[in-house]
Amino acid sequence: MSLATIRDYQADQWRSTAAEVLGRLETRHFINGAFTDSVEGGRFESVNPATGDVLAEVSAGTSADIDRAVAAARAAYRSGSWAKMPPRKRMKILYRFADLVEENAAQLAVLDTLDMGKPISDMLNVDVPLVAETVRFMAECIDKVDGSVTNTANNAMHMILREPLGVVGAITPWNYPMLMASWKFAPALAAGNSVVLKPAEQSPLSALQLARLFAEAGGPDGVFNVVNGMGEAAGQPLALHMDVNKITFTGSTEVGKLMLQFAGQSNMKHVGLECGGKSPQIFLSDLPDMAAAVEAAYCGIYENMGEVCNAGSRLLVDRSIYDEFVERFVAEGKDAYQPGDPLDPGTSMGPLVTKGDQQRVLGMIESGKSEGARLVFGGDAPQELEPGAYVNPTLFADVRNDMTIARQEIFGPVASVIPFESAEEALEIANDTIYGLAASLWTRDIDKAFKLVKGIEAGIVWVNTYDSGDFTQPFGGYKQSGNARDKCIDSYKSYTQTKSAWIKLSNQ
Ligand code: NAD
Question: The pTM is what?
Answer without folding.
Answer: 0.98
